[in-house]
Amino acid sequence: MNQTRTFLLFALVAVAYFLFMAWQKDYAPRPPQNTVTATAAPSSDASVPGAIPGSTATAVASPAVGNVANAPAPAAAQLITVQTDVLKLGVDSRGGSLVHADLLAYPNAPRTHKNPNPPPTVLLSSDDAHYSVAQNGLVSSSDVAPADQPNHLALFHSDKTSYVLADGQNELKVDLVWQDAAGLKVTKTYTFKRGSYVIGVSQRIDNGAATPWQGNAYQQLLRVEPPKASNWLANYSNPEQRSFQGAAWFTGEKFEKLPFKDFAEPKDQLNAQIKGGWAAMLRLYFVTAWIPPAGQTEHYLTDTINPDSAHPRFLIRTVGPAISVAPGQTATSESRLYVGPNRQGTMDAIAPGLDLTIDYGMFKIIAVPMHWVLSQFHAITKNWGVAIILLVLLIKGLSWKLTAIQYRSSARMRKLQPRVQALKERYGDDKQKMQTAMMELYKKEKVNPMGGCLPVLITMPVFYGLYFVLEYSLELHHSPFLWIPDLSAPDPWYILPIIYAVVMLGTQVLNPVAAGMDPTQAKMMKVMPLLFTVMFAFFPAGLCLYYAVNGIVGLGQQWWITHHIDREEVVKPKAA
User: Cα separation of 151 and 133, whole Å?
Assistant: First the structure.
């Protein structure tokens, strides 16, 4: 297999893979929505599913979180604002739900001269088109109307409507209180710590009633699918649209995920008892996750709310074990909520398996160590673009001898092309004799036509592994380099794709189309620079930088080897 055929194979595989990813995201058929539609309540966050199936009879028994969608919504809810050094949150007093979250350290656009202070990334929102909220509450196991329970629609009271973590203060607590006429009191406390995206959540039950209270605590995340652009090209060029969107959970041993398009599939829905797990909604670079106590077994489920509406809401919920509180006694349910960035190497310290939310897929075995090496170079250079260039030089250095074999094979094959052409003219259309004669020629000249295959077999996994590192690693998000404001987004001036096209043209000059190549392949080789320019125009600029520098170094190596072999051919006749 000569260099041109190898390069063509690599290009076609790459193009097919990324086109398939884009098609799968936008046009793959979706299963019909069979989920039961909950009745919408007057308030914006009152849509919840009905009772959890299997409340008493199945192996995954779970209490019913009643159909509170039919409950009247309290009219006097307030929005409570909470600001720490890293978060700015909106807490709805109706249920104490987190309905808004700004990540103050992560702007939603690159910083430029024209836009030096872009607004922060919004991770939670009550807006219908971008709906994403975190809810929790308590549900009674007795025959109590949903409107009279301390669920996520109950009206809580707070002493203040604004809380700020002051300078020098390391912890901030926000209390919300609910109480019924019988004397049952619930105090929901959110605990925020400086520099942390982990929010402590406790629900203290004080039973001042004359009868025991029995029920369960639950936590849930609701989210809509992010809106798509009006055309396929805009969606393909948007990394967030190409990335996974949906729910994920950890079973204590295994990481699993469910894309929004599969929520209605009964075989894919989650309905299980899990110990030591967590439930999350994933988004490119960021994650929201409810984390129950590590040793506690909870019932996990997924559901679709109002599937036939313009903005169906996708739910993942955990329900804790039964709680019984005698008259005059208290009990507390604890959990944690993570609302923040998906930073590799830090998530497992928060909860086991949480690091898996940075999902590199089947190329994880390559992507993870590559990310580590890239991080070490960044620690030295303080610039991700320079770190990528150093990564190129490291990989080229390690594979120098291997690629040299490829280039020597290519150069020697190039020298044999006149003789191959002569064989073609001699044998005409007799392909069998032609192939036999070519193999004899290669054997006589000690040329291995397969010499260029092995380096490509190594290069392709590196290509895909690096693609996922540069596309899914938060550290490169909005990281600038020279004229590029964001290495995780396409090059705004298309300079790197053009540089790579020029490198490809230079490669073709050193490796002209082989004699005997199929005419269709020959034409494809001529248009490959244009094809790669268009394809790389929508790739992350960091990936284009890697391959532009890699191509320049490789072209230099190939020129040197080709020039060296040409000199050998000149010296040998003189010596003879």
Answer: 15
Contact predicate 318/299, CB 8 Å: yes
Selected residue with higher pLDDT from 261 and 9: 261
Confidence check: pLDDT of 452 > 70: no
Instruction: Look at residue 217 and give its three-state secondary structure.
Output: strand
- What count of other Cβ atoms lies within 10 Å of the Cβ of residue 41? 18
Q: Which residue has the higher pLDDT, 379 or 11?
A: 379
Return d(Cα 154, Cα 496) in angstroms, integer: 55
What number is the average pLDDT over the span 5-19? 50
3-state secondary structure (DSSP) of residue 246: strand
Asked if 163 and 174 touch (Cβ cutoff 8 Å), the reply is yes
Tell which residue, 236, 243, 234, has the closest CA to residue 15: 236
Query: What's the pLDDT at 116?
Result: 86
Angle, CA 514 vertex, CA 511 and CA 517 arms, to 5°: 140
Rounded CA separation 370/38 (Å): 46
For 83-131, give the secondary structure using H, E and C: ECCCEEEEEECECCEEEEEEEEEEECCCCCCCCCCCCEEEEEECCHHHC
Torsion of CA 243, 247, 251, 255, to 10 degrees: -10
Q: Which residue type does 119 have?
A: P
Q: And the tokens for 376?
A: 């070490």
| pLDDT value of residue 90 | 97
Q: Is the pLDDT of residue 551 over 50?
A: yes
Rounded to an integer, the average pLDDT of 271-283 is 96
Distance CA 476, CA 343 (A): 11
Give me 103's structure tokens.
Answer: 């990540």
- The answer to whether 389 touches 545, Cβ cutoff 8 Å, is yes
User: Is residue 147 exposed (0-12), middle (13-18) or buried (19+ Cβ within 10 Å)?
Assistant: middle
pLDDT attached to residue 126? 94
d(CA 475, CA 219): 30
Q: What is the per-residue pLDDT across 496-514, written as a single tens digit (0 to 9) for each?
A: 999 988 888 887 777 655 4
DSSP string covering 347-413:
GGGTSTTGGGGS--GGGHHHHHHHHHHHHHHHHHHS-HHHHHHHHHHHHHHHTHHHHHHHHHHHHHH
Q: How far apart are CA 15 and CA 301, in angstroms?
A: 38
Query: What is the structure's pLDDT at 496?
Result: 92
474 by Cβ neighbours in 10 Å (0-12 / 13-18 / 19+) ranks as: middle
Using 50, 70 and 90 to split pLDDT, how confident is the model at 29?
very low
Distance of alpha carbon 420 from alpha carbon 514, whole angstroms: 9
* DSSP letters for 451-495: TTHHHHHHHHHHHHHHHHHHHH-GGGTT--BTTBS-TTS--TT-H
Report, as an integer, the average pLDDT of 255-269: 91
Residue 207 backbone dihedrals phi, psi, to 5 degrees: -95, 95
Q: Which of 87, 92, 152 is nearest to 122 (CA)?
A: 87
Bridge partners of residue 275, in order along the sequence: 297
pLDDT at 193: 97
pTM of the model: 0.80
Please choose, from the candidates 186, 190, 126, the residue with its C-alpha nearest in 3D space to the C-alpha of residue 155.
Answer: 186
DSSP state of 18: H
